[in-house]
Batch of 3 targets.
Target 1
Amino acid sequence: MIRICRRGSLTVEAALTLPVFMTGLLTLVSSLYMCLLSQKIQASLLLASERMAVAASDGGSADIGDAKAFLAEGLSEADVRFIYNGIDGMDLSGSEICHNEYINLKLFCSLVPFSDAFGIIKIPLERRCLTHIWCGYDRGYFGDGEYVYITEDSKVYHCDRNCRHLMITVRETSPGEIATVRNESGARYRPCEHCHPKLSDEHLYITPQGDRYHNQITCSGLKRSVRRVRKSEAEGRRPCSRCGR
């Protein structure tokens, strides 16, 4: 009779202990998987940002709406299963393209551990990736070939990054003076299409090489994006008269 009680006692203890042990084991494995998944999401976010940066440099689409599609490509179906609401649960509403120069992706979502059978536990996850829009190859990226420098709208290429034609000198002027000043080519200055300056503005800004005047020094028309590319990719452009000889 005593043996039977002991066996019954051991059975009861096992019945009570085993679920606690299995729950603890699942929680530990789930925590490790959540850490791995968060790193995978960060890597996918970086990949999405890089793809957008290259697309933007070539004049293609760099819409924030494309980021979610790029992000989904880096995640498997098993990964998405543990994201609350799946792909639709990834919020990128805080993302933006800053001054056509940086892609700032901000992701917020909630992870659901597989130890939670009722979907009650939601672990918030926030990740961010800031990427500069692609501006050319790094030095030595290709062992063969010569590198040159180009700008977006120019029809020439430059052999020297410090060429004066690549540098922008911004000068402040006044509405009363703008009608009399000329650029290096002797042409008059006209209003910028981006910042829409008026002759009633207090301050105007011009560059010696440009032919527009601006009312904001932060106007995108006063910025110049220089890209470093292989010379073979600059076909159709002539060499700069100063540094391309």
Target 2
Amino acid sequence: MSKSVIAFIIILVAGIGVAVFLNYRNYSDDPESPFNRNENNRLKVYSPFDINPALVDSSLQSQKKDHTISDFSLVNQLGDTITKADVTGKIFVTDFFFTTCGGICPKMTTQLQRVHKEFLMDPNFLILSHTVNPKIDTVEVMYKYAERFEANHEKWWFMTGTKEALYIMARKSYLVVPDKADPNFDHGDESDFIHTENFVLIDPDGRIRGMYDGTNADEVSELIRDVYDLKREYAFTD
């Protein structure tokens, strides 16, 4: 066998190997790929006892089961009042931000764009982003911010309310705020009283099923896969 034929065979085999690898990698990146998850995979249900105590109100720290988000009444970028009834029965992701943030917030919101686009046509999925600076982030300001990130206003809600109401949701429902945060204290700066990079995944029963670093693309990819797991668990179809 000539050297040219041998070289051709080597190149051919190497090419096939690369193609198989790339195909496997792309297939594995598919959130519904069996290479990622067993179809019977079930996400953990988180209770306050499972979370860093610094992020949990002292009245809840010993609770080991049956934690669900509390009732709420907030206003979105359309001026609509949103309550727990509007999200019950839906899978949703929540976070805390402020529109003038020049640090982690744009990174987080950009990552949420990925999630938003992935489930844009899913009637059972929402995103709730809560401002931590309600004094500045009016309905009009949040509408413009939503437009900046190409949000579908019916699928991705940017929420505002009183400091106290937002703090209660962050600390007692979503379990993402350190105890040192004080909703009654005016820090005099943009960050106000809550600044967290956490995304929280909530199931249709209002339970926490995952927590992720919203500045980390790999963790957000994990979040997307977890949403698909919840869709299977609740037998949701697009």
Target 3
Amino acid sequence: MNIYKRHRFPPDIISYAVWLYYRFNLSHRNIEDLLAERGIIVTRESIRLWCIKFGRLYARRLKRKHRGYGDTFYIDEVFVRINGKQHYLWRAVDQDGEVVDVYLQAKRDGAAAKRFFKRLLRSHGSEPRKIVTDKLRSYGVAHRELIPETIHSTKQYENNRAEQSHESTRVRERGMRRFKSAKQAQRFLGAHAAVSNLFNLGRHLIRSEHYRNLRTSAFAEWGMVVA
């Protein structure tokens, strides 16, 4: 199926604009200017619609191609205010820093924790060997009822990996001047996580030559996803 059918601009331009939006802290206006500098005249509204439509499609393809997550999940929740109402963004990352799932909910009680854990189990395909959380009691409820055989650690500072993973979301939230709705936030964060995982190459941990090889592989995979 040709996902670009009836679009006036070629796939290379559309996929490049979507990549810029989810890879960097850029607004639709910023991307409009970057494309204009290259002689490509497209409105920010068209770019916004591309990001909504194709961001979801690309994220779905990236998840299908993903090679799997680690066996340890670091889980945390952070509040997000949308239209004056407080929501909670639940996030799980593995030991390599890859985002397993992000899920926006109105509460952080036991029922909300169980919903999130069920999503994690579907994404992972099996129970993790270990989960690391803070001392929120809702995690204990979900752990006892859904994955009682999994090791559950609540040691102080051990969950810093998940807490630090929220930083990129906060940066984008400020750049977007807050999320406009829960649906928009969930749609954006899901696509953002999938793109981030692909280009999460641990640049500060590896030699430059190895990093360049990994980056080349990431671009090649991205090219297959957007084809």
